[in-house]
Amino acid sequence: MHLFVRSRRRKSHCLTVSCFCKSHSHSASPHLFPAPTQIPDAHLPHLPVSNSLPREAPSSSSTSSSFPSCHRQCDPHDDIVASNREIAHYIRDGDIGSARRVFDGMRHRTTVTWNSILAGYAKSPGKFREARKLFDEIPEPDSVSYNIMLSCYLHSFGINMARAFFRKMPLKDSATWNTLISGYAQRGDMVQARDLFVEMPKKNEVSWSAMVSGYVECGDLDSAQKFFEAAPVKSVVACTAMFSGYMKSGKVEEAEKLFRQMPEKNLVTWNAVIAGYVGNGRSEDGMKVFREMIYRGMSPNSSTLSSVLLGCSNLSALQLGRQIHQLISKTPLSRDTTAGTSLISMYSKCGDLRDAWKVFLEMNQRDVVTWSAMISGFAQHGLGNLALDLFDEMVKDGMRPSSITFVGVLMACNHAGLVEQGMEYFNLMVRDYGVEMRPDHYTCMVDLLGRSGKLEDAVDLIKKMPFKPHPAIFGTLLGACRVHKNFEIAEFAAKGLLDINPRSATAYIQLANIYASMNRWDQVAGVWRSLRERKIVKTPGYSWIEYKSRVHKFRSGDRVHSELSSIHSKLDELEKKMRLAGYVPDLDCSLHDVGEEQKEQLLLWHSEKLAIAFGLIKLPREVPIRVFKNLRVCKDCHTATKYISAVEGREIIVRDTVRFHHFKDGVCSCGDYW
């Protein structure tokens, strides 16, 4: 019978959060950030773009001079313990120079003293020579000394040099073996890790956990499970690793079962659960787990909040995201770059670009991920010129763009219809920055060329790719073929997509849409018949809107929402107003072989129109209506939303799989280019 072991609790350095705040408000100053639809394309608002903004002067309590210096207040030669404590303090603060001065001033040193200063050098990048010299000078090195040096070899020179040092070590304990096993596991060399594990004379919880974690990271869930089941004691580390493995493989039920069996859960465990749910498309469950974690008194870290904010983005839960922001502002995480970047992404994806920009401006430190997130935010909202201006500022600031940065840049060119600029950035990626081209970059370029009607150029680009096309590339080309009604290239794209994934619903559905737009109803029926015969499930389209921290979902022709009667009445009222203003339903967007009157009714009940009507009923006039859709918004809904924004005098923001659309006064920010 296997046992679960409880590990000792470690003190958290995060502030304990007792509850969520019920309200949160951010209002960017108008001179800092004009409304998204009013941002001028000609120039970027003034940016304090220095990557290292002025910091507040540290309080006297945080300076090293305030530390009760043992070598000033007492004799370090007689008080080894106090000096050791002071060295450890400096090492924790990363001040190796001050630690060395205390060390050099000591007349008497123990092996603990030597190990403390050795660990400081071992953790400092580029200090291997000093660490090795210190190690050679230790009068009586113990197993801790050797283990510190082994880790130093591993981090400085890699696994082979560490293995050579390992062979010569006269003292080896469990930590020694575990260090090398973990080194091989982290490198993905599970054959060597397993050989060492078998050779290891006495295995402990860490040994078993390292093997389980290694196999999980390598994607070998079967081997991970075998080691997990064979482990005599199930540590919290091994359980968490196995849980993550189940989640990454989509085995959510097995993961949940394991989670329920765990007698103890640490912060890493809770983070794995939240990230697992969010990564498997169950963000609502992830949010529930986060609330339970807070209720149990756990303090979140940047990893926790990154997953939670990603969940908010997936759900478009702006109000919850704002509560998380307020939570962050009350902890040291308010100065954390990762947390700040996650907030930028959350606000951008939830349709609040104003607060995303405000967070960006207020950050003390920005890394390449931060800049990339803000560039992508501008791009997704159709502010291509601002995205490109920000990219220029990033380069001027000395930040080297990454592969992800260029995805945002190419997306900006795509959404702004900047074909020539897009080609230029696509070419300089490798030429000027040495960034390797990836499928995402090619997908952006195919989309850019396809949307501008250059379908033949898009096909040529696909044929010249240095690797096999990704399914998304053919799916993107299919979408462009539908817009431009190019059946010949559509068949090429559909064949390419089905060659990669014979069960791709996208290929069949896009072909059916193209046939329908050309009134080839027999061929439409044939496509649907093929879907049924192959038992391929079509992803259902739906839209949702947040109201009072609750997400309301709608499907086309929805008949289950509790307020459907009011929604239908509102849509009937809107249709009359829109027709008086000049709206004519686009019947090509109705893919059913039915009469015109029925097509008009089906179009009126599209999911995004239902969600917009709900927002008009529930939300005050001064609040923008934010609607989100899991598929591309259709042409008729796009046109109708422009009319609704005009006749109702409301700002409406719609996010689909392509971009954000800001509708106001009968105009969309995309310029009808999407």
From TrEMBL:
Residue ranges of PPR repeats: 110-145, 173-207, 235-265, 266-300, 336-366, 367-401
GO terms under biological process: RNA modification
InterPro entries listed in its UniProt record: DYW_dom, E_motif, PPR_At4g14850-like_plant, PPR_rpt, TPR-like_helical_dom_sf
Molecular-function GO terms, alphabetical: RNA binding; zinc ion binding
Family: Belongs to the PPR family. PCMP-H subfamily.
Superkingdom of this protein's organism: Eukaryota
Region described as Disordered: 43-71
UniProt-listed PANTHER family: (WILD MALAYSIAN BANANA) HYPOTHETICAL PROTEIN, PENTATRICOPEPTIDE REPEAT-CONTAINING PROTEIN
Name by which UniProt lists this protein: Pentatricopeptide repeat-containing protein At4g16835, mitochondrial
Composition bias type Low complexity, residue spans: 50-69
Any single Pfam family the record assigns to this protein: PPR_2
Residue span(s) of domain DYW: 582-674
SUPFAM superfamilies in the record: TPR-like
NCBIfam families named among the record's database cross-references: PPR
Keywords annotated in UniProt: Repeat
